[in-house]
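Input C-alpha cells:
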C-alpha cells in the first residue's frame, strides 16, 4: 500500500512496510504485546506530526518502529498498489496476476496438437495423459508390482506399452491407417513419429483441425476398446471402431460448422461420402 494520510491504511492487515502484514510479522499476539489495537489505522499512531508508539519489547518491534520513524504522513489519501514484475501499478488485471504467481516452465512442442482450439475435451485430456505416458498400460501396472498379463489386449502378440498400443499394435494400426488416410494424410509407424509429424504441421485450417480431432478420437476409441476387453470381456472389430470414430468426428465437425458458419462440401471423407450442406444436416455415414 502507498501510504498518504494513513486514514485508510490498517496497521495490522495492510502491507504498508517491507515486513509485510504485521499480523504475520509479529504474530497473532502482536496487538496485545505491542499495545496497538487490532483495528488501528496508521493515522491513529500519528499525532502532532510525530509517531506515538509504545516502547519496543522485541527486535521485531524495534525493526518496524525504526522503519515507521522514517515515514511521515501527508494530506494525500492512501492508495492500494499492485506490485507485478517488481513494478508498482495502480490498476491490475487477473491475467497479469495469474502469470506472475504461477510457476513458469519451458513450453513444449506438442501443446498445440493437444490443447488446440476446438475438439472434444475428454479426448484432449486422455491424449495429454498419453503424451506424458501416464495412462495405466500393462507395462506400467507391472512396474507398480501388480501381477498382470503383459500381453496387449488388442492383438495379444506383444507386451502392452504406450508405444505399442499407439500404433505398433496391428489392431490399432489398421484403425489409424484408415482414419489418417481418409483425412488425406499418410500414417506414421510409431507414436514418436506420429507426434512429431503432427507437431510439424503448419497453419490452423480445417484440414489440420480435422486430422487432430480424428487423431484424438482414435486414441480415445482405442483406449475405450482396450478397457472394455479388460473389464467387460467384450470386443469390437476394427470396422466397428472406425465407424464409431466417424460418428464422433462427424458430430464434432457439425458443431464446428454451426459455430463458424463454414459450409465446405467435402472436407471430411471416411469413404462414406459425407457432405455438409446446411446447419440442420449432420455428417451421415451411409454404411452405419
Amino acid at each position: 500500500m502507498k501510504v498518504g494520510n494513513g486514514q485508510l491504511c490498517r496497521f495490522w492487515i495492510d502491507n504498508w512496510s517491507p515486513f509485510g502484514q504485521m499480523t504475520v510479522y509479529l504474530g497473532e499476539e502482536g496487538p496485545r504485546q505491542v499495545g496497538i489495537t487490532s483495528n488501528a489505522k496508521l493515522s491513529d499512531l500519528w499525532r502532532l506530526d510525530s509517531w506515538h508508539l509504545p516502547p519496543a519489547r522485541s527486535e521485531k518491534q524495534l525493526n518496524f518502529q525504526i522503519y515507521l520513524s522514517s515515514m511521515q504522513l501527508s494530506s494525500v489519501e492512501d492508495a492500494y498498489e499492485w506490485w507485478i514484475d517488481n513494478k508498482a501499478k495502480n490498476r491490475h488485471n487477473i491475467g497479469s496476476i495469474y502469470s506472475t504467481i504461477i510457476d513458469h516452465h519451458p513450453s513444449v512442442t506438442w501443446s498445440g496438437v493437444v490443447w488446440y482450439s476446438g475438439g472434444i475435451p475428454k479426448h484432449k485430456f486422455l491424449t495429454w495423459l498419453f503424451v506424458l505416458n501416464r495412462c495405466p498400460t500393462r507395462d506400467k501396472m507391472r512396474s507398480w508390482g501388480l501381477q498382470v498379463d503383459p500381453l496387449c489386449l488388442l492383438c495379444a502378440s506383444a507386451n502392452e506399452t504406450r508405444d505399442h498400443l499407439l500404433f505398433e499394435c496391428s489392431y490399432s494400426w489398421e484403425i489409424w491407417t484408415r482414419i489418417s488416410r481418409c483425412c488425406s494424410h499418410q500414417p506414421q509407424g510409431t507414436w514418436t513419429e506420429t507426434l512429431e509429424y503432427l507437431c510439424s504441421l503448419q497453419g490452423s485450417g480445417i484440414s489440420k483441425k480435422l486430422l487432430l480431432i480424428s487423431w484424438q478420437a482414435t486414441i480415445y476409441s482405442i483406449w475405450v476398446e482396450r478397457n472394455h476387453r479388460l473389464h467387460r470381456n467384450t470386443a469390437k472389430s476394427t470396422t466397428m471402431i472406425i465407424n464409431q470414430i466417424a460418428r464422433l468426428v462427424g458430430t464434432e465437425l457439425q458443431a464446428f460448422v454451426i459455430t463458424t458458419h463454414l459450409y465446405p462440401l467435402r472436407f471430411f471423407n471416411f469413404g462414406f461420402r459425407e457432405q455438409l450442406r446446411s446447419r440442420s444436416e449432420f455428417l451421415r455415414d451411409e454404411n452405419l
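The longest strand covers residues 82-84. The beta strands are 46-47, 50-51, 82-84, 87-89.
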